[in-house]
Amino acid sequence: MEDPLVRSIQVDGDRFVDHAGREIILSGINLVNKSPKDNYMPLVDKDFYKRLQEWGMNSIRLVVIWDGVEPEMDQFDEKYLKELDKHIKWAAEYGVFVILDMHQDLFSAKYSDGAPRWATLDEGLEHYKGEVWSDSYLISPAVQGAFDNFWQNKPAADGKGLQDHYAEMWKMLAERYKNQSNVIGYDLMNEPFPGSIAQQAMPALLTAYGELHAKKTGIILGEEELMGIWSEPSSRNEALQKLDNAADFGSVIQALSPLTSAFEKERLQPFYQKVAQAIREVDEQKIIFLEHTYFGNMGVASSIQRTTLPNGKPDPQVAYAPHAYDLVVDTEFSSETSSSRVDYILQVISETAKKLQMPVWLGEWGAYYGGGNNMVPVAQHAITQIEKYNFSHAYWSYENGLENRPYFLQSLQRPYPFAINGELKNYHWKPDTNEFEMTWQENPSLKASTLIFFPDLSGLSEEELKVVNGKLITHENSNSGWVEIPANGKLRKITWQLD
């Protein structure tokens, strides 16, 4: 009898598939520690990966920090790498797949996390902080200067370009993990930021907002008034409430499109090609995950393209790895996330993926942190939209006690299809009624079963299981597990009421 479990994952056109040709939905979480005091290692043990399995999280975005990998130029830290090895092997023991994410926030460990100091060429410029950590992207000359020098591939102290050092680091990691079957791919850079050209971003947004405000109210706001509105969190949030409409929000946010498009075409794409080529010298199989620019998080359309192989042909093992955050993320107003803005952001991602003909792995969404009941409707709406597009995804991020948060129990831990024989048409879990529905068209040439995760198998009706000849695959000492539905080559539809 064929093994029903998923053993490997690759890209087939615009879908993720496993070794048996089944469509795969990655449903996972980010695992991160940005503290150099902990050697940037997640503070979790082997048992954590067992809990991931019980929660139905089949994958992690494992954050890797350049400063951890290569704290000194050309000296890879074997102690750090062996700790990474340990987490990857723990994940493998519990069937958890891993995407390695080369993370940065504000470019460098000097300002937040990312590049080592030897690779941070900020030319002595001042570093400024804002009320929200990410404000420094827009106000810190040091951060912008460090990015500028990176995108220009300025030489480090040894005369070798910064990007060339970065590519060699990725090549080393690919060589190390190419035969580790649960490592399925490489997320080349977290939220690439354009550098000093981003100084054009705020004027472009303010101009677009001012035009919309004048159109809606007949009142023309001056430059100082507009700056005042956006420089203070409460007035900024008030302004955002006026953008609680997809069309209005889109008209403002797409004002950044010329800036981001130029950066992605002129700087980001050649960088991606350089790193991808270095990886492909040693690993032709694992998936390369490409992110849009930092501004793409809030719905600016992306202009990235698929990387190519050394022979010039399109690389088939490439996936689109966008992030999606409403503008209130990381502020005290996060519970006031706009559903219409989130809908707009995910729609733009879906449209971009169709143009690219790549599968989507939403590498970050959420960031609800210590939120209570107020975050439940926010999380439920987001996951419903993720389901709508059949996106694979990784919630940002794991924190101690997450499994006890109301939004975790009522949105993140949920039924979903992991491996589907044929084409997944749609699926949805209704938390209010605890009803799960799913439609898929099986491929008659595939014999592998469909696997659906349920947090509580005891809530399934024996009668409904009998109809589909379903078998239970349980997790040890847990109520959770998979329902295995044998193939019959037909259009399948289930609507199950869970007790």
**What percentage of amino acids are in beta strands?**
15-25%
- Total strands: the figure is 20
Could you tell me how far the N terminus lies from the C terminus, measured between alpha carbons in angstroms?
31 Å
Number of structural units classed as domains: 2
What is the C-alpha radius of gyration, as a whole number of Å? 23 Å
The assigned structural class equals: alpha/beta
Broad CATH class of the largest domain: Alpha Beta
Fraction of residues in helices? 25-40%
Uncertain runs: none
* CATH topology-level name of the largest domain: TIM Barrel
Largest sheet: 8 strands, parallel
What is the overall pLDDT average?
Answer: 97
Characterize the overall form.
Answer: globular
CATH superfamily of the largest domain: Glycosidases
Corresponding CATH architecture of the largest domain: Alpha-Beta Barrel
Alpha plus pi helix count: 15
The main sheet orders its strands as 9-8-7-6-5-4-13-11
List the helices and strands and how they pair.
Layout lengths: L8 E4 L2 E4 L4 E2 L2 E5 L14 H10 L3 E7 H4 L8 H16 L3 E7 L32 H4 L1 H11 L10 H16 L5 E5 L13 H17 L5 H9 L1 H9 L4 H8 L3 H24 L6 E4 L27 E3 L2 E2 L14 H18 L4 E2 L1 E2 L10 H13 L3 E4 L10 H7 L3 E5 L2 E8 L4 E7 L8 E5 L7 H6 L3 E4 L6 E5 L5 E7 L2
Parallel strand pairs: 4-5, 4-13, 5-6, 6-7, 7-8, 8-9, 10-12, 11-13
Antiparallel strand pairs: 1-2, 2-3, 3-14, 14-17, 15-16, 16-20, 17-19, 18-19
Helix pairs in contact: 6-11, 7-8, 7-10, 8-9, 10-12, 12-13, 13-14
